[in-house]
Amino acid sequence: MATLMAGAMSVVLYSAHLNFPKEIQGLRNWAQALVLMVAGVVIFAVHGNSNILLLCSNVFIVWGLGFMVIGTERFYQLRPSWRLFHSAWILTILGLGYWMWIKPSFTTRVAVASLLVFILHVRGLFVIWKNGDNHSSTWFFGSLIFIESIMVMMRGILALTSSTDVNLMGTGVFASLYLAITHLMTLLMTVGFMTVCTRRLQITLERRSTMDPLTQVLNRRGFADIYAKEHALMRRESTFMTMLNIDIDYFKKINDAHGHAVGDCVLVDVAQMIGKALRVSDHVARFGGEEFVVLLPSTGLDRALHIAERIQAALRAPRVGVPPYTVSIGVACQISAEESLDGILVRADKALYSAKERGRNRIEVAPDTVTQMRVRA
Predict the structure, then answer these.
(1) Adjacent-strand bridge partners of 286
(2) Crossing angle for the helix pair 136-161 and 106-131, to the nearest 10 degrees
(3) Would you list the domain boundaries of the chain?
(4) CA gap 157, 171 in Å, rounded
(5) What pLDDT score was predicted for residue 299?
(6) CATH number of 220-365
(7) Example GO biological process term (predicted)?
(8) Which residues of 212-222 are buried (b: 16+ CB within 10 A; e: fewer)?
(9) 352 alpha-carbon distance from chain centroid
(10) Tens digit of pLDDT for each residue in 326-366?
(11) CA neighbours closer than 13 Å in the CB half-sphere of residue 136
(12) What would the pLDDT profile of 285-305 be if each residue is shown by its tens digit?
């Protein structure tokens, strides 16, 4: 039953790979791993007294475990350790073959196979520990591999140091317990991998819903969420914040003269250069077209103007890959927590319109912003 379920799980994983080939790496390798392990278990079940089939069974299982490691590494966007993979199955053939035919020793074969499997599990654990995030899904996944590695290590140690029968074809308590746990762990490890994949997919979809796909900054929805959090903090701590409305000057002419591909490069360049000029606590979003909005929490007018000038200076500087361009910036400060996002956006937009009317490539402050700052002072 466990073998059949593993086969079914491989279909599920491969289907997920077909649906999310770029978002989640490693699914195909895990699907391949389950198919190989199912093949290994089936060969082991029918091998009878054939040492060749027994050796093939072990090689298939090592291949399966190796593909699990490769899949885990690819999931965390690491270079697959193919050297370890090939070393493991080659040593399985050489080690088991030597202690099968040249110098027969069942306990040594068990110890060698257990050591190689244990090394593969340790590699998987190291990858998860080094690259996994601190989340219950990661802990669940890692714990399952840890339990499986302990079981494998115990079998290898018992084979060399104890009189306990570690022959999995026997009817002893250890054999029954080992087979039950390892088959269950194989399924649970797959479930564990799927939980971390599900979390990765959830984060990816959430990111897509709040990020602009071209410039990789916040979109309007993501900006609204950030503003709501900063607005609540502003209300609680009685602070203020400033909004910058940034628009590329004569962007249509850039598209007409250089093409839309270059226009897209300019948009990406604007987003990157604005991000470099901001602090960690600041937020930038693209509101569509060539319009960008920057939120500066706990920032007064003087500091905001300094940041705006820094952005303009950075964008005026010549750079390889994009034609020269300038931006106009409208500035509005929010003093009252009663004002809404739409309210401050309208005021920043009016200041931007004023900058456009006065010749572009300049910074204008909303008139009511100056009045509010004087009243606050």
Answers:
(1) 292
(2) 160
(3) 1-208, 220-365
(4) 20
(5) 92
(6) 3.30.70.270
(7) cell adhesion involved in single-species biofilm formation
(8) beebebbbeeb
(9) 37
(10) 999 999 999 888 899 999 999 999 999 999 999 999 999 99
(11) 0
(12) 999 899 999 999 999 899 999
